[in-house]
Design a protein that fits this description.
Shape: elongated
Pfam family, one: GCP_N_terminal
Distance between the termini: 73 Å
Structural class: mainly alpha
Keywords: Cytoplasm, Cytoskeleton, Microtubule
Radius of gyration: 48 Å
Largest sheet: 2 strands, antiparallel
Oligomer: single chain
Helix content: 55-70%
Strand content: under 5%
Number of helices: 33
Family: Belongs to the TUBGCP family.
Strand order of the largest sheet: 1-2
GO molecular function: gamma-tubulin binding; microtubule minus-end binding
Subcellular location: Cytoplasm, Cytoskeleton
C-alpha cells in the first residue's frame, strides 16, 4: 500500500508542477479536492453542469480540444475504477484557472489572508493555502468563500469575544483608513487611536509614501522619468509592479470591507504589509538611483542591485533589468547582424560619427562610449561587438560585398532565442561572451579573407617591405646605379617622368619583374622638396611611393604612408652613403694600379682606405640593425594575415613593425636625441666621400701631368733634342712642390676629419649604450665590439658600456634572489 501511495503522490506532484507556478499551493489544493468527503452528496446534475463549464471553456480555445474532452469524459464514465470522478474534474478545472507561466499573471505581492481560521467539513484545515493558490480565479474562490462564510468561530472564552466585538467598529475604520493610506490616500482620522495603533498605522502608511515616490518617478511631468527606450522599459516594469500591488491592495480592501470586516485587524494588515514594504522600498531605491540616467548607464545602475545579498532584492532587480535591456538587445542584434545603429535617443554604447571618409571609416567613424557600456558586459566584449559591426559595415561599404544573410548569425542563436527553458535573461546567460566572441571571430575571418583573396593584402604588405623599406637588394642597388648621374643634379632640374622611366628599367633588369601586375602598377616615383629654402640635390628629394586605395586604404592610411616615406628617406640616405663609399673603393682600386711611381701618396691613400673601411662598417651595422630589428615583427604580421586574424590585430602588428623599424632607424619619437648624433655621423661620412673625390682628382691631375711630361720627353728625344730643359725642370719642381703641399694639406684635413668622425661615432655609441631599448644597446656593442673607440675616448669607460650594464643587471638579479632566500629562511 505504501509504494502505491508514494507513486500517486509523485504523479500528483508532477501534474501540479506542469499546471501551476505555485507548486505548493496547487498541491495543497489538489489534496483538498481529492480528500474531500462531499463526493457522495453531489448529484449527476452537478457533474453535468461542471462538464458544460469545462466544455464551454475549451470551445473558446479550440473546438478540437472540446471534442476530445467529450470523448475522454465518456470513457471516464464507463470506467468503474475511478470513484471520485467529480472531484477530479473539479480539481482539473481549478488547476486550469491558476496562474500560468506568464509575467502578466505572476504573483509579485503576497495575497492578504485576513479571515479567521475556520474548519470546513468538506475541506479540512486547508483554507489558507486554497485562498493563496486560487487568487485571480473567480469561479473557484466564490464557492470557497461561501463555504467559509457559513462557518462559525468556536470560542471557549465568551467574555473575551464580547470585548473584542465591542472594539470592532473602531478597529474596522482604522483598517480601512490604513488600506487607503497604503495607496497614498490621506485620511482625516489618521492620527486617532492609541499609540500602538498609531505605530501600526504609520508602518502601513509608509507604503503610501513609497507608492507616491514611484508614481512621481513614472510620471512624465515630474522630470524624474528616465528618457529613451530603455527608460521606458524600466518605467513599464515599475508600472507592472504597481499594478500587482494594486491588485493585492484591492483584495485586501475587499476582505476588510466584508460584513464584519472578515477578521481584519491592524496587526494582520501590518503583517501582510511587510513583504510589500520590502519590495516597494527597494523599488524606490532603484528608481532613485536611476534618475536622470539612460542607456547603458541606466542598465549599470540597476545591475548593481542584482549583486545584492538579499535574494528578493536580486530577483527584483533581475526582473527590472531584463525589461529595460530588451531595447538594448534589439539594438545589439541589429548592429551585430546588419552593422546598423538604430539609436534615436543615444542609448547604445557604440557611437557613429558622420562626415568620415571611407578610408578612415574603420578608424574614426565608430567608437565605444565607455560610460554607456553596461556593467554586465566587460570592455573586451564591447570591443569585440564594435569590431563585429564594423566588419559588417566594412564588407558592405568598402568591399561592396553584402551577403543575403550574416554568416556569423548562428553564433548568436543562444543570444537571440527567447528564454523558454528558464536559463535566465540574455544579459546573464553563460554563453553571452562565447556567442559574441564566436561572431567576432567569424566576421573578422571573413573580412580578412576577402582582403587577402580579392584585394591581395599579403602581396601589398610584402611589396611595402621590399621596395619602400629597401629589402629587395638587387632592385635597390641597380636603381641606385641607374639614378646616380640623374640624382647628382640639383633638385630643380629633375622631372618625375624621366625618373619613372629609370624605375621601369630597374624593374625589368632585376627580380622585381616577376612581381604581380597589381603590385608593379602601384609602384611610383615622387619628389618631395624641402621647404627650408636650401638647395637640395636629387638624392635629398627622391622617394619611391606605393599607392593604395579602396579597402586597403584602411591598413595603409595617410599617416602610415608618411611613416613609410620617413623610413624610406632615412634608409635611402644610409644606402646612398654606403653606395658612395663602395664607389670610392672602386675608384681607389683602379687608381692604385697607377701609383707605382708615386710613393709620396701611398701613405695618405692607405690612411684613406682604412677610414673608409671604418665608415663602411658603421654604415653596414646601421643597415643591418634597421632591417633585422623588425624582422620578427614582419614575420608575425604576415603570419597573422595568412591565418585570417582580425583586422584590429593586423593594424596593431603593422604599426608595431613600423615602430620597430623607426626605432632602429632612429627616427622614432623615443630616439629623438639619437637623430642628431646619427645625422652628424652620416654627414661626416659624406664629407669623407667628398674628401676622397677631391684627393683622387688631385692625384689623377698630377698623374696626367707627369704622363704628358714623359710623352713630351719621348717626342723630343725622337727629334734629337734635349729631353728636359732647365725651364722645364724648374717648372716640374714647382709643380711637384705644389703637389706635395696638396698632399700634406689633405693629410692634415684627413686627420681633422678622422678626429671629428670618431668623436661623433663615440658620442653615438655612448647614447646608444645608455638608451632603454635593448636592441639599440646591442647596436652600441656591435659598433665597438673590439673596444676600439673606448680606448680612444675616456668617456666610454666600463660602467657605461652595454656589456657592463648587462652584467650589472645580472648581479642585481642575483642579489635580489639571495635577499629573498635569506628572508625565507628567517
Amino acid at each position: 500500500m505504501e509504494p502505491t501511495s508514494t507513486n500517486v503522490a509523485e504523479l500528483l506532484h508532477k501534474l501540479c508542477s506542469h499546471l501551476s507556478t505555485d507548486l505548493d499551493g496547487a498541491y495543497e489544493l489538489a489534496m483538498s479536492y481529492l480528500s474531500s468527503t462531499s463526493e457522495k452528496t453531489r448529484s449527476s446534475a452537478d457533474e453535468k453542469l461542471l462538464c458544460q463549464k469545462i466544455y464551454s471553456k475549451l470551445c473558446s480555445r479550440s473546438s478540437r480540444d472540446a471534442e476530445k474532452f467529450n470523448e475522454y469524459h465518456s470513457k471516464l464514465r464507463n470506467c468503474f475504477i475511478l470513484k471520485q470522478r467529480l472531484s477530479v474534474l473539479s480539481l482539473l478545472l481549478a488547476l486550469s484557472e491558476l496562474p500560468q507561466h506568464s509575467d502578466s499573471t505572476l504573483q509579485l505581492f503576497p495575497i492578504p489572508q485576513l479571515a479567521n481560521a475556520k474548519s470546513a467539513t468538506g475541506i479540512p484545515a486547508v483554507t489558507p493555502s486554497i485562498s493563496k493558490s486560487t487568487i485571480g480565479s473567480v469561479s473557484c474562490t466564490n464557492s470557497l468563500k461561501q463555504q467559509i462564510s457559513e462557518q462559525s468561530i468556536p470560542s471557549n472564552n465568551n467574555m473575551a469575544l464580547s470585548i473584542h466585538q465591542a472594539d470592532r467598529p473602531n478597529e474596522r475604520s482604522c483598517v480601512r483608513e490604513a488600506v487607503l493610506a497604503a495607496t497614498g490616500v490621506k485620511c482625516r482620522n489618521s492620527g486617532a487611536g492609541s499609540r500602538p495603533m498609531q505605530a501600526l498605522y504609520s508602518r502601513i502608511a509608509h507604503l503610501g509614501f513609497l507608492h507616491d515616490r514611484l508614481k512621481e518617478f513614472i510620471d512624465p511631468l515630474s522630470g524624474l522619468m528616465p528618457q529613451g527606450l530603455m527608460g521606458e522599459g524600466l518605467v513599464t516594469a515599475i508600472r507592472d509592479e504597481l499594478t500587482e500591488y494594486y491588485r493585492s491592495v484591492a483584495l485586501l480592501q475587499s476582505q476588510a470591507c466584508e460584513g464584519d470586516g472578515g477578521g481584519a485587524t491592524l496587526r494582520r494588515v501590518c503583517v501582510w504589509a511587510q513583504e510589500p514594504l520590502h519590495r516597494l522600498t527597494w523599488l524606490a531605491n532603484m528608481a532613485h538611483a536611476a534618475q536622470h540616467k539612460k542607456g547603458g548607464e541606466l542598465a549599470s545602475c540597476v545591475h548593481r542591485f542584482v549583486r545584492h545579498g538579499d535574494e528578493r532584492v536580486s530577483s527584483l532587480a533581475r526582473r527590472l533589468l531584463t525589461a529595460l535591456t530588451y531595447p538594448l538587445l534589439l539594438m545589439l542584434t541589429r548592429w551585430l547582424l546588419h552593422g546598423e545603429i538604430d539609436d534615436p535617443f543615444n542609448e547604445f554604447f557604440i557611437e557613429s560619427r558622420s562626415g568620415v571618409p571611407i578610408d578612415r571609416m574603420w578608424h574614426d567613424k565608430y567608437r565605444v562610449r565607455e560610460w554607456m557600456v553596461p556593467s554586465f558586459m566587460c570592455r573586451e566584449q564591447a570591443a569585440q561587438i564594435l569590431a563585429t559591426g564594423k566588419s559588417v559595415v566594412f564588407m558592405r561599404e568598402a568591399c561592396a560585398d553584402e551577403p543575403d544573410h550574416a554568416p556569423h548569425a548562428h553564433h548568436l542563436h543562444s543570444l537571440l532565442k527567447p528564454d523558454t527553458e528558464g536559463a535566465g535573461a540574455w544579459w546573464e546567460a553563460a554563453g553571452l561572451g562565447g556567442a559574441v566572441r564566436g561572431a567576432h571571430d567569424a566576421a573578422a575571418r571573413r573580412l580578412v579573407a576577402a582582403l587577402c583573396s580579392r584585394h591581395h593584402l599579403l602581396d601589398h604588405l610584402a611589396a611595402h617591405r621590399r621596395y619602400l623599406l629597401l629589402a629587395q637588394g638587387d632592385f635597390v642597388h641597380h636603381l641606385m646605379t641607374l639614378l646616380q648621374e640623374e640624382l647628382n643634379k640639383p633638385a630643380t632640374s629633375l622631372y618625375v617622368h624621366n625618373l619613372t622611366c629609370t624605375l621601369e628599367a630597374a624593374v625589368r633588369a632585376t627580380n622585381a619583374q616577376y612581381e604581380p601586375s597589381h603590385v608593379l602598377a602601384r609602384l611610383h616615383v615622387n619628389l618631395y622638396p624641402n621647404c627650408d629654402g636650401r638647395e637640395d640635390s636629387g638624392w635629398d628629394v627622391f622617394a619611391l611611393q606605393y599607392r593604395v586605395d579602396g579597402p586597403l586604404g584602411t591598413l595603409f592610411p595617410a599617416t602610415c604612408a608618411a611613416r613609410y616615406r620617413a623610413l624610406f628617406t632615412q634608409l635611402w640616405r644610409v644606402k646612398r652613403i654606403e653606395y658612395s663609399l663602395h664607389d670610392a673603393w672602386r675608384e681607389h682600386t683602379i687608381l692604385h694600379k697607377r701609383l707605382k711611381h708615386m710613393p709620396e701618396v701611398w701613405a695618405v691613400m692607405r690612411r684613406v682606405c682604412c677610414v673608409r673601411a671604418e665608415a663602411l662598417r658603421v654604415c653596414g651595422a646601421l643597415q643591418e640593425a634597421s632591417c633585422a630589428g623588425a624582422e620578427d615583427d614582419w614575420a608575425e604580421l604576415l603570419a597573422a594575415a595568412a591565418s585570417r586574424t582580425d583586422l584590429d590585430r593586423l593594424l596593431h602588428l603593422h604599426l608595431r613593425a613600423l615602430d620597430q623599424h623607426s626605432v632602429h632607424a632612429m627616427i622614432h619619437h623615443s630616439t629623438q636625441e639619437l637623430q642628431s648624433y646619427l645625422g652628424n655621423v652620416l654627414n661626416e661620412t659624406l664629407a669623407l666621400r667628398s674628401f676622397e673625390s677631391m684627393l683622387h682628382a688631385g692625384i689623377v691631375a698630377e698623374l696626367e701631368r707627369r704622363d704628358r711630361l714623359e710623352r713630351l720627353k719621348a717626342e723630343r728625344v725622337a727629334r734629337g733634342e734635349y729631353a728636359f730643359t732647365a725651364a722645364d725642370e724648374a717648372e716640374d719642381k714647382e709643380k711637384r712642390k705644389n703637389f706635395n703641399q696638396f698632399i700634406a694639406k689633405r693629410k692634415a684635413d684627413l686627420n681633422v676629419w678622422t678626429r671629428t668622425y670618431r668623436g661623433h661615432v663615440t658620442a653615438l655609441i655612448l647614447k646608444l649604450a645608455l638608451h632603454s631599448e635593448i636592441s639599440l644597446q646591442t647596436l652600441a656593442f656591435r659598433l665597438d665590439y673590439s673596444d676600439f673607440y673606448k680606448r680612444g675616448d675616456a668617456k666610454l669607460h666600463e660602467p657605461l658600456t652595454y656589456q657592463h650594464k648587462r652584467l650589472s643587471e645580472i648581479g642585481l638579479n642575483l642579489a635580489k634572489s639571495k635577499y629573498i632566500e635569506r628572508s625565507k629562511k628567517k
